């Protein structure tokens, strides 16, 4: 863990200043209500950041391969990176097109969501997109190894709310099939009293690359707690994700208590 200023960890240069300011004004200058427009904007910004990062990754991989200093094993590895990044970009751009079309039509209600509101002081800031592969019960939803599959995409982020903060899970209606199943499994965890808040914390740590901890919270954690979080943040590029990665882990660290749940899922 390293300390970074809020300006460097909470922004990305994906838009020019004027367009960034005008487009995201409803979420940059106001707390999350929530309104349909705000929900759509939070989801859209998370998606755009991921497109921006993947496009840069694609360029960097191509540059590394073009320099000609890689041995055979490294070239094979980078060729795999290039293929995977190309597949990821294809899916991300397809999802961005859906969002673009909805925005152009002013159809913010095309974005469905579930929002968990907390009254506690937030100690995390995060934003990410991912393809739900397994749900909170360990059941497979999508096969990420299928290169031809059009994967459903979920966005997750934190947002300031009046008197607290919110954890927002949102998706475009075109991704409703598996995103609804994913949220349904989370609902079963909550209803069964099996630690829904811990499950949310586990999901954030496991799924969010763009994440920041409040230093005063991090420094109060035990060395064991810090090690467990860092271990959960680590990714083994050569090992598949286990089906139970959202089922258990990181208990006893997070003290989140959901105060209220907002949801809009169209029939």
Please give the alpha-carbon distance between the first and last residues: 43 Å
Over all CA atoms, what is the radius of gyration? 19 Å
Beta-strand content estimate: 15-25%
Number of beta strands: 6
Poorly predicted parts: none
Mean pLDDT: 94
The arrangement of helices and strands along the chain is: HHHHHEEEEHHEHHE
Task: Describe the overall structure.
- This protein is an alpha+beta fold and 267 residues long.
- Helix content is 46%, strand content 16%.
- The chain has a 6-stranded antiparallel beta sheet, with helices on both faces.
- Helix 4 (36-66) packs antiparallel against helix 5 (72-104) and helix 6 (176-191) packs across helix 7.
Describe the secondary structure blueprint for this structure.
Blueprint lengths: L5 H4 L7 H7 L1 H4 L7 H31 L5 H33 L6 E8 L5 E7 L23 E8 L2 E9 L3 H16 L4 H12 L2 E4 L1 H4 L4 H11 L24 E7 L3
Helix pairs in contact: 4-5, 6-7
A few lines on this structure:
By secondary structure, this protein is α+β, with helices and mostly antiparallel strands.
Key phrases:
single chain; 267 residues; alpha+beta; six-stranded antiparallel sheet; 9 helices
